[in-house]
Amino acid sequence: MDLLDRLADLFGCQYLSDLKLVSLHVSSREIQELMNLDETSYSLEDYTEAASYILNEEKSFSTIKQAKQAIVQALMLK
What we know:
Blueprint: H1 3-10, H2 28-35, H3 44-55, H4 64-77
Helix pairs in contact: 3-4
C-alpha cells in the first residue's frame, strides 16, 4: 500500500481525493498515528508526494519529519 492510500485509510477517506477535505474529521489519535508511522516504511519522496498532493502544490522537504508536519498542518488548516 502506498503512503497516500495508507493516509486515506488512516483518516477514513472513501476516496483518495477526500484527503483534501478531511480536516473536520482529524482526531489527535489519527495525527499521532501519522507521526508514529515507521520512517523506514516510506521514503522522503513518498512523504513529499503526499504532502504536495494534499496541499495541491509542489513541495520540497529535507526530512521525513518536516514532510509529516506539513501534512498535519495541511489537514488541520483545511
